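FAQ: What does a multi-protein file look like?

Like this. Sequence, then C-alpha cells, then the next protein.
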Amino acid sequence: MEKRNLAQELAGNAYPGRGIVIGKSEDGKYAVTAYFIMGRSVNSRNRIFVEEGEGIRTQAYDPSKLEDPSLIIYAPVRVLGNKTIVTNGDQTDTIYEWMDKQQTFEQALRLREFEPDAPNYTPRISGIMHLENGRYNYAMSILKSNNGDASACNRYTFAYENPAAGEGRFIHTYMGDGNPLPSFEGEPTLVGIAGDIDSFAKSIWDNLNEENKVSLFVRFIEIESGKYETRIINKHG
C-alpha cells in the first residue's frame, strides 16, 4: 500500500467528517493518535473539546444554540489502564465498559452499529491503543451500513502489531461532501507521521477545511513509560 501524505489527504477532502489517526512517531518513541471533528450544521459546529480525566469530551460552545445532543455530545477519548480508546461517538463508553469486564474490542463493538442519522447512516469509527512492557499495538474498526441499506451492518476490524516508526493509519467517516454523505470505503489509509506533537497537530489543523473544521485532539504517549502529552485545538474558544 502506498504511504500517503496526511496533510495532502486532508487538504484534498473538503468534508472527511470525523477522523482518527493512530500510529508511531518518526523516532519510534511515541504512540501517536489524533482525532478531529468537523460540522456542516450550526449544531455540529457549536462544539469544543474539553479534558475529562485522562480523556476528553465534547461540549457545546454556546449552550443556548444546542439542539439535539444525542450524536454530538460524547467522550471521544477514554483511558483504561494501559489502553487508550478513541472513537467518533458514545461507543467509547461501550468499549470502555466491556473491556473493563475482560471482553475484547470487537466483542464490545458487536453491541453497536452505525449512527441512526438517515440517510447518511454515518459510520462508527473506533480505535484502541495498547501499550505494555515497551511494546505497542493498535486496532481500528468501522461499522457501516451496507451501501445505505440500514437493515445490514458491515463490521470491519484492522489490527496492527509492532507498527513501524513514522507510519500510521487514517480512518474517517466520509469519502467527501455530498447528500447523502458517502461513507468511508476500504481499509484505513497508510499515512506518514512526521514531526513532534506540535508540528503534527499544526499540520492536521492547518489542512482541515477552514469552514467545516471544529476541534482537534492529539496525543503522544511514550511507549516505554506510558507518560503522555496532549494538544487540543478548538475553532471556538
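And here is the next protein:
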Amino acid sequence: MEFYFDPICPWCWMTSRWASEVAEARGFEIDWKPISLAILNEGHDAGDHAEGHRQGKRMGLVAVAVGHNAGNDAVGRLYTAFGERIHPGARDDYDTIIAESLGELNLEPSLSAAADREEADEELRANTAHAMEIAGPDVGVPIISIDGVAFFGPVVTPAPTGEEALRLWDGIYAAASVPGFYELKRGRTKGPQF
C-alpha cells in the first residue's frame, strides 16, 4: 500500500492511524509518500489554510530528506511524530516540532534545514503529481494506492480501530478490485476527532 500524505492535514492524519493499525494486523508495509497541499493549490487563494499549507510543505520537504537519509520506515515514524504533536497535540510551533520529531527518532538534526531548502522540492512535486495522476482530478489528501488502484480517502473520524478498522480495509480492498469503481461519498457532519 502507498500512502500519500501532507503532514498538516488532520483528515490525512486520522486515516494514517487507521492504515498503520491495519498494516500491522494484516502484515503489509506502507510506502509513505509525502505530497503537498501547497503545491496542489498553487495559483489558488488558500485563504485561512495558506500558512498551514506552507508549513505542511516544509515538513514534507523534511520527510523527503529523511527518506533519502534513513529510508521509508523513518518517513512513517517521522510522520507519526509530526502528527502526534500537531493534531492531538494541537501545537503549531513548527520549527520546534520538526526538531523534536527528528530528535525523537535519533535522526540528524541537520535534516531540519531541508524545510527551508528547495532541494527536495522536485521530488515533493513529483510525488504530488503522481498522486493526482493515479487518483484522478479534483481530489485532496489522503490518497491511498492498493495494488496500483488509488483512491482519495478514506476520510474517517475518529480513526477506526480493531475489527472495525479491518472491516473498513476489507471493503476498500474489495472496491479496489473492481476496475470501474470510482467514488462513494457522503457529506461530513463531524470535524476531526483525535
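Q: Is there any per-entry metadata?
A: Some entries carry free-text notes. For the entry above: Residues 50-70 form the longest helix (21 residues).
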